[in-house]
Amino acid sequence: MWIITEKTFDPISQHHKETIFTIGNGYLSTRGTLEEGYPGEHRATFVHGVFDDVPVVFTELANAPDWLLLTVLINGERFSLKSGKVLDYQRELNLRTGLLTRHVCWQSPSGHISTLKFERFASLHNQHLLALRCQVTPEFNGEVEIRTALNGNTDNEGFTHWDWVEQNRENQDTLYLINRTRKTGIKLALAIRLLGIDSLQPDYWDVENVPTFRQVFQAGCGETVTITKFVGIATSRDAEVPQALAIEAITKSQNWDIALKENEQAWEQEWERCEVSIEGDDEAQIAIRFNLFQLLIAAPRHDYRVNIGAKTLSGFGYRGHAFWDTEIFMLPVFTYTAPHIARNLLDYRYLTLPAARQKAHQAGYEGAFYAWESAATGEEVTPTWVPDFHDRKKLTRVWTGDLAIHISADIAYGIWQYWLATGDDNWLAERGIEIMLETAKFYVSRAEWQADKDIYTYCDVIGPDEYHDHVNNNTYTNRLAQWNILTALQILDWLREKYPQKTTKLTQQLNLTPELLANWRKVAEKILLNKHPNGLFEQFDGFFALKDVNLADYEPRSKSMHEIFGIEAANHYQAIKQPDVLMLQYLLREEYNDQEIRVNYDYYTPRTDHSYGSSLGPSIQSVVASMMGEVDVAYEHFILAARADLRDIRGNAGDGIHAASAGGTWQALVFGFGGLKVGSHGWSTHARLPQHWKSLSFRFFYRGQLQKVVIKPEDLR
Ligand code: BGC
Asked: Could you please report the per-residue DSSP string of 581-634?
């Protein structure tokens, strides 16, 4: 249950498969394109933090120079899946080790048959090392020619980010290439070292921006020719002379077997911490491993200046920008299974606090208003305009960068959860508290007082449900803002007791006088919450007065309700994109009793666009259904989330992994079916398993100790 397999190559689904077969190591990811190339492919490698400017959407991860390129000529005929005949084909991604393998039995146009095997991995042991091995076995006596290169002529769907800087042959079997991003000036160096069974004497072709090695072998019938390509990669973000680091990585590695072994050992340690096993459901088992694998290969282990984009590093979608997807959907996986990675992600928010302060200031507020879409600096990079669904020539205004103010509280919530699970007081005192106080300050300054009712409101916002914009008093936003203010005050009390000196320094630095803090409490207590006497929350002012809609009337459909109604008109209906009130009740689940959740669950569930709305929705819907004891329904939503990419549920997996859904899938298992509850005094589980599951096991860290939970149906009776 560790292998994702593809048995035939279908050009129609090649972009989807490129995403599925992405490999990576937390420093970079490379999409699963074929070494030799294929027409129409979306070939890409994304390196964390390597952003460059681009019109309209401000900045994007620059598709790095290509390290994969490898062409095989067999008796002068170029190997390609496009020509000749593919007699046998199999591609496998080993989730346990990150090794991607492809076997092809190929008949050339002139009828010569050969077997080719390609293997590649991005070393988790040394993040600057990539490895590719190609083995060719002809069924005839002949010549096998291998050309392999570094290719600096890459682009982001037509847009070029790179200037050529330098290339050279370092020695007999080593060459390098340096490029620089055009606007941000980041240098990226790649270096190749070729290894064969015997020593190689490759020709060097000094093609500008495509330095190439060419090696010709004479092979007898049934004899295997092997070439190993080690690639070193580094940028000026890592070292002043990146080519030195790149060359060091490839010289350190002695051979394929050793490099692979070191990589496997590193992976073993990863899985030791986060392994989830589900007996009785092979699909769920492989899917959770796949989703975890995708998060693990995107997770920065040695860099706290970067975050994980909504599509990880696996595609062009959302251009590498990070959203609330990180703190609310992905972070819990790391907080509980790899706290050092969680801390890196939160450090990024600390590092980008100045940009969040700046955004608040520019909008006329105080404190920290984080970017809805964040990249290298933390400045707001949400595009202001995007093409309309129905008419690509028309532009639609995107408001999330201005109005999705819940992002600041989402980050504060992530910090709080991290602290609860890890007990990392030091980090909270040094960094986390400052973020929480600054976001609290923002919410106090953003609240508007309605004198006649003596309440504070948040007008003109967008909540998690983005089918409705410019709404007033979105319950999720209001309550999380309130939670943020009150929790910041609570942590400040804790800080005062535990770190008095730090408290004095911080309160002076942030100008937090006792009067000001007293006012914060007053504001927080008077924030409007649209709660009806029976416990039902109105998603925002006037939601219940909108046209009601029976989503079943629109079935069967293959479009979201947003597309069906149109962006403007969707505002007038009660159809929602993803859980909003329920999302809140999930996050603050300790505060609501079953009846209070039930009434909202019953109201909002039928009005949610589960299958075509946001991919963030199903996993959360699943946890809430589990909380309600509706295990079958929870399973339906869970499996929808688990399949998001493997089955390309929304038809856009080619743009990259749905990272929030991947993180949500883990939450649906651990907090939903596993019923894990974590508090300051320990943890407990209240499990409910789908009927066909024979067991569910998962692991997590609580206060530095690895906990192993095994749940079996017989223990629940
Ligand atoms: C969702 C947002 C999400 C974004 C990035 C949007 O479609 O509505 O909640 O943050 O995608 O994944």
From this structure: HHHHHHHTGGG--HHHHHHHHHHHGGGB-TTTS-TTHHHHHHHHHHHTT-HHHH
Q: Could you tell me the CATH superfamily of domain 3-250? A: Glycoside hydrolase, family 65, N-terminal domain (2.70.98.40)
pTM of the model: 0.98
Measured from the CA of 577, which atom of ligand 1 is nearest?
8
pLDDT band of residue 78 (cuts 50, 70, 90) is very high
- Tell me the CA–centroid distance for residue 614 and ligand 1, in Å: 6
Q: Where are the beta strands (DSSP E) in 284-421?
A: 385-387, 395-397
Name the one residue in this structure whose structure tokens are 């507020």: 365
Helix (H, G, I), strand (E, B) or coil at 661: helix
Angle, CA of 295, 674 and 625, to the nearest 5°: 95
- Residue range 169-192: average pLDDT? 97
Q: Which of 308, 381, 614 to mutate to test the pocket of ligand 1 (most atoms within 8 A of CB)?
A: 614
Query: Domain 288-716 - what CATH class?
Result: mainly alpha
Regarding the beta carbon of 419 and ligand 1, being less than 6 Å apart is answered no
Task: List helix spans (H) across 161-281.
Answer: 242-252, 256-274
Mean pLDDT of 635-642: 98
- State both tokens at 320: 């590498």
CB of 328 within 6 A of ligand 1: the answer is no
Asked whether this chain's domains 3-250 and 288-716 adopt the same fold, the reply is no
Q: How confident is the model at residue 355 (pLDDT cuts 50, 70, 90)?
A: very high
Domain boundaries in the chain?
Answer: 3-250, 288-716
Residues 31-41 pLDDT 10s: 999 999 999 99
